[in-house]
Amino acid sequence: MTDMDYVVVGAGSAGCAVACRLVEGGAKVALLEAGPKDRDIRIHVPAALRPLLYRDKVNWNFHTEPVESTGGRRVRLPRGKVLGGSSSINGMLYVRGNAADFDGWAQMGCRGWSYQDVLPYFQKSESYKQGGDPEYRGGDGPLAVEDYRTVLPLTHRFLEAAQQAGFPFTPDYNGAQQEGVGYSQMTRRGRFRGSTAQTYLRAVRGNPNLRIVTDAQAGTLMFDGRKCVGVTYRQGGQMKEIRAAKEVILCGGAYNSPHLLQISGIGPAAHLKEIGLEVRHNLPGVGGNLADHWGARMKHRVRENEITMNQLSRFPRVIPEVAKYVLFGNGALTFGVTSAIVFCRSRDGLSSPDLQLSFTPATPIDTGQGALEKEPGVQLTAIPVRAESRGHVMAGSSDPFADPVISPAYLTDDNDINVIVAGIEISRRIFATPAFQEVSLGEYAPGPDVQTRDEIKHFMQQQGGTIHHPVGTCKMGEDAAAVVDSRLRVHGLAGLRVADASIMPTLTTGNTNAPAIMIGEKAAAMILEDAT
Description:
- It is a single chain.
- By secondary structure, the protein is an alpha/beta fold.
- The chain has helices at 13-24, 41-44, 49-52, 99-107, 115-125, 153-164, 196-203, 253-263, 269-274, 309-312, 318-328, 414-431, 434-437, 453-463, 513-531, and strands at 4-9, 29-32, 62-63, 76-77, 126-128, 143-147, 180-183, 185-189, 192-193, 210-213, 217-224, 227-235, 238-250, 266-267, 281-282, 294-302, 340-344, 355-360, 377-384, 392-394, 405-407, 440-445, 465-466, 496-498.
- The protein has 15 helices and 24 strands.
- Strand 8 (185-189) and strand 9 (192-193) form a beta hairpin.
- The radius of gyration is 22 Å and the shape is globular.
């Protein structure tokens, strides 16, 4: 393929933002995506996300190694393998995080990543037209952010209950104040999902400087000495290559970016030798520092006359919901995953929230987001947002097309367990308020018999699940475990950057899609600056 200025590997949340902004800056960009174009109609209908979590055609469908700390289970790890990446199959929640997250990165030595540094890129990325403070919110970006279009009465009731339990109402958790309880915000484009493919890429559709190559899975990075000059990829059963005149930018996410580096001989030397790879550059931190959010899901049965997504997703009640969606662009088919969120502190003495409680007027049958139960119910998930447990991602063989070996080490840090235990206790306090007791038929998971720390710990290990927010495996910083510097350049090599959630030194307070998009925005700006 003809050389381009830049090759972006991975058309996900960050990759689409990087490609769009580079093209707008006048660069010639090739965007490689291992999956297909986003033509599956279920991608674009918000409430149709559940089947996508199991569909191999648009989903990497990774699994962890058996995790002793979570009952020896192999945990499913869906990740988007399609234009838009995980933004095409996720719950569409838009949560920037807490200012303290980014100030913490700056204090770790990540220059230019304080909250005041990254705020302009959050603003540049979004278009939020529903009354946000312009000091914090953006109005002209490609990413359309909206409040929920259809809010069931139980969500309003939950907001009332949380306030009765002592949590203040927060009108915009992406504005001046995150802490408190508020309604969820979503990335959407009218009635449709607002993936980065349908927002960022749509903005540069038809630009001759952008070449999108789908069904093209990266093989290995190509080098001229210490400089990365391109990438090989497999398409239609054939191996091909593409060269970058300036840089290659990896945007494969927390699993695929470190795997591609390792397969290309960049990573911990001892491990690379062990699996038969030639060591190009010993970089011990590649694949380490894997962090993810783990949640314990409390479920309550509610009275039969209370409407939840459990009933609305089934025949015959789904029929009028389809009509509402087609005719008016609202109704149950616009629903994502979580309709309200509490950000709070698990204990006194903390300077910012370390706990997220995500409310859903629905109850999945399994520990993921699969089929819903028949009886009406609601779920509140307790999530330690500043999780301290750390695992790793490693290439299991020299085969570039084999899945990486993923060992997340969930719940191996005692503080993560303490925060979830506190979250269960706070959740019970909310559900015990008069506002919620009017409709509740009682807690059935973990259930009233589960009370002690050990009992709650056992429940979260056996019945908890990932919230699908992996980060950190190509950590940004200047210490020995860092993979990229503050401008996202891979330490010790030229022409190679990483720009996705893998560069986060620590998790952000909340869902990670919005920060990943911000990283793409900031990366593109730095790349264009460095090219001048």
